[in-house]
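Checklist before submission:
- one chain only
- standard amino acids only
- sequence pasted in full

Submission:
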Amino acid sequence: MYAEYELSRYRSAELIRQAEHERLVRETLRGRRAARREAAERSAETDSHTGRPRRHRFLRTA
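Returned file contents:
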């Protein structure tokens, strides 16, 4: 009887640890995405104020 109780407690603790780990992973990814977005916005702002027009990489054919 006690074995089933211990097994249940162990399983519950394992599920709690797994959920905590997944939550930390999600938070980390959310932070990385936010930082990447910020960096992209900053680089877009600096690129847009260079003062020279952007040229096409390939010429268009007539």
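Reviewer check: Residues 2-48 form the longest helix (47 residues).
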